[in-house]
Amino acid sequence: MPDFDVAVIGAGAAGLAVASICGGLGLRTALIERGRMGGDRLNHGGVPSRALLAAAQAAAEARRAGRFGLRLPEPEIDWAGVRAHVQGTIARLAPDHGAARYRGMGVEVIEASAHFTDPDRLEAGGRGLTFRRAVIAAGSSPIVPDIPGLDGVPWLTTETLFDLEEPPGHLLVLGGDTIGVEMAQAHARLGCLVTIIDPAPRILAREDEDLAEGVRTALLAEGVTLREGAAVTRFEQLEPDSRQATAGVVAVLTDGTRVAGTHLLLAVGRAPRLAGLDLQAGNIAATPQGVRTRANLRSVSNPRVWAVGSIADPRGIGPRGFTHLASQHAGVVARSMLFRLPGTRLDYAALPRLVATDPELVQVGLTEAEARAAGHRDLRIHRWPLSENDRALAEGRPEGLVKLVISGRGRLLGAGLLAPRAGEMAGTYGLLIGRRLPLSALASLVLPYPSLAEAGTRAAGEFLAPKFLSPFTKRVIGLLKRLP
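The line above is the sequence of Dihydrolipoamide dehydrogenase; the predicted structure tokens follow.
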């Protein structure tokens, strides 16, 4: 008999979700983690970044109080206090992700690294164990690009950024995608000089251009310097002088421009943690993007193995590096691995992604460009500015946009939101797209007044208005008005 019914490698968001299901169902479950429980979500990702962004938001609101007729002094940034808030948030949430909690569920937590020795066998911390099923949830890590001189200068990733005991004087951010722009705005609001260097023609190149421009405008207004379309040819160490007590970094760009800073943050993406797993011994096929799986997350080469989270590379779908996929992936594994339900597969049609800047940018489903690339014809695009929303005007934040991507048949394919706290509105659009509800369901939704979410109902209502006010409808009303 195998030692375990299910062996889970990795105690990040996806691994914990799978382990809790398996343990709750009474299966003999091993949860193997070589680092800190909670993975990147708790220790280096969503939790500390949102805590830092919240502190930065408070500083920004103090500076913007003048729009309400309030005069407040420039906020004094206590970096030690900010850091205590970030670390304290992690500490308060740690018990929910800790080994004791999962041991209480009947899960055996093994605090060690693991690697495959056979298709049905692992070694963890020098201990050999066999399994009926294994789930690889080892996650991903920040990419360190191959740029000359990088090995000779100090650099940061999100795994080390939140440990800084002093604020950066001038933070150079290499990469203008989600992590880069979030951390750029947070540090700028906390009093740091910030420069983003991005080889792409514009920051947030994957996001809808209309919405990304709103984030770009906000960053520029807060003093962030943008070097878009600029590749780094090499890095050099900046020696300390009378103005700078510690060594810094110089980024030399393709046009010869030299950009100097005190700290360098690498934010060019993430790569799956495949090294050390010895996948070949487990007969587990992989690509540079992760463990190759079918659409139900089952390995294409070893039927005993599944992969979840950012390390999974589903065939025909591709990997996704979002923490909020953990519960969806765990549900797919439960249905396909535990209940053996045929036809189980991932569905990313309503997948949201969030850029947690201020204003926030949320995309649910397809952008306009993605819909066109997917072959959708006769697309209709409908925009509704936040300047038409009563709540936004009352709060002095009229910048923003709702953008609906609608098929020729009137089905919602995607929704983009640029607004304060836009992430809190994403669920409505996810439900609409995921359940294939008609756009009229959004237009008829009754929401508390005034709320930012009303912008979506107004957008849908305005889109449907021409149909409601068509000549045919007017003729019908003309006939009905004669009835007693």
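Note on the example: The mean pLDDT is 93. The chain is about 30% helix and 25% strand.
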